[in-house]
Design goal:
Layout lengths: L1 H10 L1 H27 L6 H27 L7 H29 L4 H24 L10 H7 L2
Length: about 160
């Protein structure tokens, strides 16, 4: 049974690690959001609601970049600044998605902000994985060696 679990982990390592890191990122995001709205920001005020959302986003994205880089995608990209900028830019799209959903469901439709924040986190987590995989931490394909290059290398 342990071998089966180990084999499954290594087979799906990236997705499993992403779910773990995504779960931890969600905890960071929610902790910051709830901390803000339960102490100094009023979620009934649309501007303060969005400010809490933005603060939770900044904390969560910073945490997510470093944990995704190291534990999920195991990036070796030497251009860490460029990679971080790409990561943050990709996350701006999901921030706008997050803010739009929160605005519609909380401000316009008067759903509970705490419940909607949980729902939005699921949607955002899936979108973030797709963006990270396709645009930020994409693996470089090994350069193919042409037959001409192979013949000159063997000489």
């Amino acid at each position: 049974m342990i071998k089966f679990i180990k084999d499954m982990y290594f087979k799906y390592k990236e997705i499993i690690n992403y779910l773990i890191v995504g779960g931890l990122t969600t905890v960071v995001s929610l902790a910051i959001y709830y901390g803000c709205t339960l102490t100094f920001l009023n979620p009934d005020n649309p501007v303060q609601l969005q400010l809490a959302n933005i603060l939770s986003w900044i904390g969560a994205v910073t945490f997510a970049y470093f944990t995704n880089r190291k534990f999920v995608f195991e990036s070796k990209n030497a251009n860490m600044l460029g990679e971080a900028i790409s990561f943050f830019v990709a996350r701006i799209g999901t921030l706008l998605m997050d803010m739009g959903i929160m605005f519609v469901f909380v401000t316009c439709l008067h759903f509970n902000d705490k419940i909607m924040k949980l729902v939005v986190q699921v949607v955002v987590t899936v979108a973030n994985y797709i963006f990270s995989k396709l645009f930020v931490f994409k693996k470089e394909k090994p350069a193919e060696i042409s037959e001409a290059e192979m013949s000159t290398e063997s000489e």
